[in-house]
């Protein structure tokens, strides 16, 4: 059975509605279909859980979903998905879901080979390197671009070319994507945003940031923000959120961060 979050079928044709309680109040509509959204944050901030629960949401909405992980083996991800009472194998058997673990070094090597073949032209076909030929997804999750980037050690210009091709591919195939970037510090808060982060931020249509908060009293909390969403009206505020067993992320749109705090 297809589930429409917020009960709206017409809205679901143009927008992907994230399966995260409270997040709907931060958008006018949702994530425009075909957007490439970067999910950014520090370690443990909730990026993987955000993607896993949206993977469940996308499957329930009848979309074809590809979840690519560079971090964890497939079986671990299937286990994490059980946290949402979701039977990944059922959707995999129906051909609606593909969970795949990749090795970032293999990708870097293949890109290297393609680039040396392409010589002058820096146009390469990323599909064989990344997207399985026999599976065209509506929604793609990549956990994470940071792992891919570290495999291109010292070759950041190659990573940039590869990213340009990837974003172009996603756009031309109208694939909605959530691309995780792990950052030691929230890169959009300071005045320094450089290198790989910058390249990816510029290319993306949307940026969602997960924060770890330290309050004055030493307590830690969680917060999130939609920083950018091309073609969509968003409420610009950093709001509290939580990670709850069985539910995943829950966003509190009416609780903007207050008082003295630091974001990490
Ligand atoms: N079942 C759960 N119930 C509550 N919190 C959880 C659960 N599983 C993980 N978490 C919390 O989520 C955090 C990890 O989120 P994750 O998405 O893996 O982070 P990231 O991918 O950003 O590194 C952990 O630090 C943990 O506190
Ligand atoms: Mg993670």
Automatic annotation (TrEMBL):
<feature type="domain" description="KaiC">
    <location>
        <begin position="14"/>
        <end position="264"/>
    </location>
</feature>
<dbReference type="Pfam" id="PF06745">
    <property type="entry name" value="ATPase"/>
</dbReference>
<dbReference type="InterPro" id="IPR014774">
    <property type="entry name" value="KaiC-like_dom"/>
</dbReference>
<protein>
    <submittedName>
        <fullName>AAA family ATPase</fullName>
    </submittedName>
</protein>
<dbReference type="InterPro" id="IPR027417">
    <property type="entry name" value="P-loop_NTPase"/>
</dbReference>
<keyword id="KW-0547">Nucleotide-binding</keyword>
<keyword id="KW-0067">ATP-binding</keyword>
<dbReference type="GO" id="GO:0005524">
    <property type="term" value="F:ATP binding"/>
</dbReference>
<dbReference type="InterPro" id="IPR010624">
    <property type="entry name" value="KaiC_dom"/>
</dbReference>
């Amino acid at each position: 059975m297809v589930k429409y979050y917020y009960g709206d079928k017409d809205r679901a044709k143009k927008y992907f509605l994230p399966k995260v309680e409270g997040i709907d109040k931060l958008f006018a509509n949702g994530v425009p279909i075909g957007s490439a959204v970067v999910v950014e944050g520090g370690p443990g901030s909730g990026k993987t859980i955000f993607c896993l629960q949206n993977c469940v949401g996308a499957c329930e909405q009848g979309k074809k979903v590809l979840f690519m992980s560079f971090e964890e083996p497939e079986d671990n991800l299937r286990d994490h998905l059980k946290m949402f009472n979701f039977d990944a194998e059922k959707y995999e058997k129906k051909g609606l879901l593909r969970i795949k673990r990749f090795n970032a070094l293999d990708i870097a090597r293949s890109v290297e080979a393609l680039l040396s073949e392409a010589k002058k032209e820096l146009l390469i076909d990323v599909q064989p390197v990344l997207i399985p030929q026999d599976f065209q997804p509506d929604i793609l999750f990549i956990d994470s671009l940071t792992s891919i980037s570290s495999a291109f050690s010292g070759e950041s210009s190659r990573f940039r070319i590869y990213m340009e091709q990837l974003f172009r591919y996603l756009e031309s195939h109208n694939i909605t994507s959530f691309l995780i970037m792990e950052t030691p510090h929230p890169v959009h808060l300071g005045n320094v945003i450089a290198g790989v982060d910058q390249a990816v931020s510029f290319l993306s249509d949307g940026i969602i940031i997960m924060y770890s908060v330290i309050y004055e009293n030493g307590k830690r909390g969680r917060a999130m923000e939609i920083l950018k969403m091309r073609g969509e009206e968003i409420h610009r505020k950093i709001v509290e959120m939580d990670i709850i067993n069985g539910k995943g992320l829950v966003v509190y749109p009416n609780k903007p961060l207050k008082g003295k705090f630091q974001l990490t």
